[in-house]
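Figure 6 in text form: structure in, sequence out.
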């Protein structure tokens, strides 16, 4: 795992944008894996700036997202569909038909997972996947458990994740308890993974990740040790450096 420590969140976001742009620029039809949550927001702002400055066009890019809540309308502000359009897609020249986000707004959720897997198989290996890490070590919504899903699944969110994500909702009760999430096998199916971690709250998870010498399903981020090209971009607060 390559580690880049930045002085703060702003520098982390700029560095991440630079790495993403450099990778995408090498491909005629780049495939970009995207994540939601507060950590990548700065990266998306930087990518918008790069686009606005005329330094990169997303017209030929395909994007694939990791997860979505179950039980929230895609037009609702709390949905990850809304987030992605609001924070990135509405501000760049990506083609709508090249955007893939798992959808949980159909009756048959099992069917939804199969459809997403089929799409993932069609898109194949992403050139770069942006990833965050949960305080409990989750990646996408793959929560600590005795077994981890290899492929797209409907998952129950843990108390810790519901508590962490309640900051985006009016109350904890409003946070969905289920989500549709890409599985570990597909998360790892990217040439490069850029893992972002910012702030003191992530310090323990980062420490645990860097110290992990076992693949531990109760710490899903440990599965990233199976991948040969993970770049951890972490600020000093999350790294525990002065
Ligand atoms: P955050 O979420 O970026 O909002 O901290 C990361 C995650 O839960 O994967």
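Output sequence:
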């Amino acid at each position: 795992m390559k580690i880049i420590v930045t002085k703060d969140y702003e520098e982390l976001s700029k560095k991440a944008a630079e790495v993403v742009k450099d990778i995408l620029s090498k491909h005629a039809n780049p495939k970009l894996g995207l994540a939601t949550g507060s950590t990548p927001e700065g990266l998306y702002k930087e990518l918008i700036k790069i686009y606005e400055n005329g330094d990169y066009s997303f017209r030929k890019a395909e994007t694939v997202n990791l997860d979505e809540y179950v039980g929230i309308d895609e037009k609702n502000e709390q949905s990850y569909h809304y987030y992605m359009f609001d924070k990135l897609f509405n501000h760049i020249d990506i083609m709508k038909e090249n955007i893939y986000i798992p959808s949980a707004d159909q009756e048959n959720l099992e069917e939804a997972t199969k459809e997403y897997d089929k799409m993932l198989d069609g898109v194949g290996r992403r050139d770069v996947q942006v990833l965050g890490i949960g305080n409990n070590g989750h990646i996408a919504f793959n929560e600590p458990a005795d077994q981890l899903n290899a492929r797209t699944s409907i998952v129950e969110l843990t108390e810790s994740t519901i508590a962490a994500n309640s900051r985006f909702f009016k109350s904890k009760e409003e946070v969905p308890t289920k989500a549709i999430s890409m599985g570990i096998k597909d998360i790892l199916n990217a040439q490069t993974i850029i893992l972002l971690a910012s702030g003191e709250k992530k310090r323990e998870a980062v420490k645990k990740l860097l110290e992990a010498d076992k693949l531990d399903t109760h710490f899903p981020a440990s599965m990233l040790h199976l991948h040969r090209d993970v770049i951890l971009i972490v600020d000093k607060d999350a790294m525990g450096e002065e």
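Caption detail: The beta strands are 2-6, 31-34, 62-65, 67-69, 99-100, 126-132, 153-156, 178-181, 190-197, 230-235.
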